[in-house]
Amino acid sequence: MDNVKFEFYKGRTYTRDFTIIGYTAPVTEMYFTICDNPSNKNYCLRKSLNKGITVVDNGTDEEGNTYTTYNLLIDATDTDHMKTNIEYGFDIVLISETKKIQVITGTLVLNDVYTKTCNECK
Q1: How many CA atoms are closer than 13 Å to the CA of 12, on its beta-carbon side?
Q2: Less Cβ crowding at N or C end of the chain, within 10 Å?
Q3: Is 31 helix (H, G, I), strand (E, B) or coil?
């Protein structure tokens, strides 16, 4: 999947499921990586299998395709050092045996945090 867009508020916990269909080899590692630009080899945020990425379901669908559904969890403090209102690029890569496969690419935008005390506003 390409051109996926994640958008959420900075400082909030974010969770999203994603499904990979038709890949049957054992996945030994998976990475969700956010960078501020493609030429920068230093990442802003990285999650890995069992450290922010977990398997939530797997099996075979009605059409006979195998699938695995994963959950991505970004904790509220994970975005503390990131800027708001800019597009970061991200990808999700799985590693299986000797293969490295980019399965999802897209952009992430952190929106500004608004005060939680608006009931005090006049």
Answers
A1: 15
A2: C
A3: strand
Tell me, what's the pLDDT at 116?
56
Contact 79, 45 (CB under 8 A): yes
Average pLDDT value for residue range 7-35 = 92
In the sheet with 87-96, reading across from the earlier edge strand, the strands are 4-9, 99-111, 87-96, 29-35, 45-49, 52-60, 66-74, 14-21
pTM reported for the whole predicted model? 0.84
What is the chain's length?
Answer: 122
pLDDT at 90 > cutoff 80: yes
Q: In this structure, are residues 88 and 10 in contact, taking their beta carbons and an 8 Å threshold? A: no
CA 43 to mean position of chain CA atoms? 13
DSSP annotation of 82 reads: S
Per the structure block, which two tokens stand in for 29? 């590692």
